[in-house]
Amino acid sequence: MWNTNYPVNGIGKLTAIALFAALPYSAGATPIFLGPSAYTSAADSPFQGQNFGYFHLEDFEDGALNTPGVSLGELATTGITTAFSDSVDGDDGLIDGVASGQTRSLFSNFRTSSFTFDFSAAALGGVLPTHAGIVWTDVGRNNGGTPRAVDLVENTIFEAFDHLGNSLGVIGPYSLGDSSISRTTGEDRFFGVINAGGISAIRISMPGKNNWEVDHLQYGYAPVPLPASVVLFLSGLSWLGFGLRSKTAATTSGGKRELVSAIG
After folding, report:
1. Which of 83, 228, 199, 209 is CA-nearest to residue 136?
2. What residues are paired with 249 via a beta bridge?
């Protein structure tokens, strides 16, 4: 809370103005796009080790998208048969190049060429995530079967949106896939974005494709510190305010109390 017990034309008002001027810094920061990068488990996430106010990772292993504050814009399913379900390698407890057992992924179900994940600030403590990502895991031929060579060329793009729903940019297309639909994981790739001003949605797309999978949706909020120059500036204002208060004297003139400032 700001101390406002200064003269109207004194340092208190200047400090408030300076603070308001500093606040938009993070919102105006340039977004950083990440990937595509190899991914075998959560340990491969570029977000690993970051200090978050909150962080959620959805691995779909319970068959649902139910981490807080996110919804899917398209129709999809986690109900793909485990003969083809291509989850992240480490979800079965062993990193060996193959997804095995009953592990799950999010499948397009021959219905959609994109997955759009929308974030709700209201459900996330009032703040949108500053970090968000998704792992692409597999593609097959439209309506079923092993992909053709053409299905593996420049097939994947990633987009993110700011707190107002405006596009932060698009990366791709990238050529992803390994010609197999037998749960191999060496092809899995992470896509992500960091935006200090908040992320309202991310979208991963395979235009013209309807047989593909993703996994390990992850998102979190990490407060971005003010740059050192702003911290020093505000610190200087604080000391200036202290000096001003120490030099302010109360005098009496015509029976009225006046504040006399040391500033000329």
Report:
1. 209
2. 260
Torsion, Cα 136 222 128 68, to 10 degrees, reads 70
Are 23 and 29 within 8 A, CB to CB?
no
Q: What is the pLDDT along the chain (264 residues), one digit of tens a residue?
A: 333 333 334 434 334 334 433 444 355 689 999 999 999 999 999 999 999 999 999 999 999 999 999 999 999 999 887 778 889 999 999 999 999 998 999 999 999 999 999 999 999 999 999 999 999 999 999 999 999 999 999 999 999 999 999 999 999 999 999 988 888 999 999 999 999 999 999 999 999 999 999 999 999 999 876 556 545 655 665 555 545 455 544 444 444 433 333 333
Global pTM reads 0.77
Tell me the Cα Rg of the chain: 26
What gap in Å lies between CA 165 and CA 60, rounded to an integer? 26
Give CA–CA dist 257/157, Å, rounded: 69
SS3 123: helix
Q: Is residue 10 a contact partner of residue 4, using CB atoms and an 8 Å limit?
A: no
The structure tokens listed for 138 are 């597999």
C-beta separation of 107 from 213 below 8 A: yes
Question: Hunting for tokens 């340990």 — which residue is that?
Answer: 43
Strand extents, DSSP E, 43-128: 54-58, 70-72, 106-107, 114-119
Tell me the Ramachandran region of residue 92: left when phi exceeds 0, alpha when psi lies from -120 to 50, beta otherwise.
alpha
Contact status, residue 57 vs residue 67, Cβ threshold 8 Å: yes
In angstroms, the first-to-last Cα distance of the chain is: 29
Helix (H, G, I), strand (E, B) or coil at 251: strand
Residue 230: what residue type? Answer: V
